[in-house]
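Figure 3 (text version): structure tokens given as input.
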């Protein structure tokens, strides 16, 4: 599944939460999952609203007025405190890692603009509890919807000034500007802030590209409301949710452009490749693979190849140059063609399992059960993984 952030009126954490609930994320299930975080003293206020006549869902994280509220909010403002909360939660490993990445970027951005170290900075502009709920509520919601790929439009920053603990600052706020380096942004004459640091951190961390909406089959649209109700245009964020890019026009597969990055390495500890590959995927690589090669003087070596969209080229090249012994890279543009892919949940004798179905036009060419689903079932029932995967194929065919 893929999601497209339509940020024509900016983006904030509460707008994303509202759009997710509007798109069908169960409020009850969202609250249950958020209870896995060891924080208290808040509640979600969810309501239907209108913005310039357009229906939307508004989600506010309300901090309860109880004794000691101030102490709790202050105690959660440093990175070590947030990291401890994430570690002590019972959320999935994947959501923990994504949440930690978002928060680290937030702290690093604030630290840079204030000339401090990220592990010593306080997030003055972000209430600790509502920031944690916004970020993890977003990650939980996307996980519930099965979102695997993220794209975004250009982000409207707004204009004017914003009041902070450091005084009146121009829009975008310094931390927001820092977070949106390498993202596509623009400014409209609204007179106030449209994109918050939390919203900027979420989108810039998750999005694999910025620009027009990719070719996709739209299955649902969620509309999340911002705080202000502007008269001339709706202050909302739209999330377009659908299947991965599919054939447009011919029905014979999707053709697009990718950047191929390559480097030959013959002097690096092989254990490092796993770490590098993981970092490249997190940074937006579409694929990463290793090829054995024979280099000059008959030395065996490895060719590291990464595929990405153009917007991610610089990020991936920096990772390779920093994390490997390579002193140079090759990169070039290539065309690729992919089959129409969709994920369907099918019945097996072990329960529901997601299956990836690949088509060329109207013809099904390949069916592959999702490895993670099969792995969970194999562990749960203590049976061979091959048996689980075989049962799904037989059931599907």
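Below: residues designed for each position.
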């Amino acid at each position: 599944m893929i999601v497209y952030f339509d940020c024509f009126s900016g983006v904030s954490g509460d707008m994303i939460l509202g759009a997710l609930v509007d798109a069908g994320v169960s409020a009850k299930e969202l609250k249950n999952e958020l209870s896995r975080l060891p924080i208290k003293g808040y509640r979600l206020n969810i309501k239907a609203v209108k913005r310039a006549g357009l229906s939307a869902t508004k989600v506010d994280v309300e901090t309860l007025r109880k004794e000691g509220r101030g102490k709790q909010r202050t105690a959660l403002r440093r990175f070590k405190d947030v990291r401890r909360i994430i570690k002590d939660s019972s959320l999935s490993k994947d959501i923990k890692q994504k949440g930690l990445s978002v928060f680290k970027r937030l702290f690093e951005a604030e630290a840079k603009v204030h000339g401090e170290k990220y592990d010593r900075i306080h997030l003055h502009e972000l209430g600790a509890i509502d920031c944690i709920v916004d970020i993890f509520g977003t990650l939980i919601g996307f996980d519930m919807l099965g979102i695997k790929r993220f794209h975004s439009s250009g982000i409207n920053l707004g204009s004017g000034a914003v009041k902070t603990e450091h005084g009146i600052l121009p829009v975008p706020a310094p931390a927001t500007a820092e977070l949106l380096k390498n993202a596509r942004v623009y400014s409209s004459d609204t007179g106030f802030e449209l994109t918050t640091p939390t919203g900027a951190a979420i989108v810039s961390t998750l999005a694999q590209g910025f620009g027009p909406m990719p070719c996709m089959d739209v299955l649902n649209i969620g509309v999340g409301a911002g705080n202000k109700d502007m008269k001339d245009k709706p202050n909302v964020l739209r999330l377009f949710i659908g299947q991965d890019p599919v054939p447009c026009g011919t029905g014979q597969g999707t053709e697009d452009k990718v950047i191929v990055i390559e480097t030959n390495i013959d002097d690096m500890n092989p254990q490092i490749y796993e770490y590098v590959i993981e970092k490249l995927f997190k940074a937006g690589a579409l694929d990463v693979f290793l090829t054995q090669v024979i280099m000059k003087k008959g030395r065996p070596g490895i060719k590291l190849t990464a595929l990405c969209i153009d917007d991610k080229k610089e990020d991936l090249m920096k990772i390779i140059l920093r994390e490997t012994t390579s002193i140079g890279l090759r990169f070039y543009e290539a065309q690729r063609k992919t089959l129409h892919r969709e994920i369907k949940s099918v019945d097996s004798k072990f329960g529901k399992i997601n299956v990836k179905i690949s088509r060329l036009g109207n013809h099904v060419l390949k069916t592959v059960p999702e490895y993670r689903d099969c792995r969970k079932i194999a562990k749960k029932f203590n049976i061979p993984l091959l048996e689980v995967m075989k049962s799904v194929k037989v059931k599907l065919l």
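The first strand starts at residue 2 and ends at 6.
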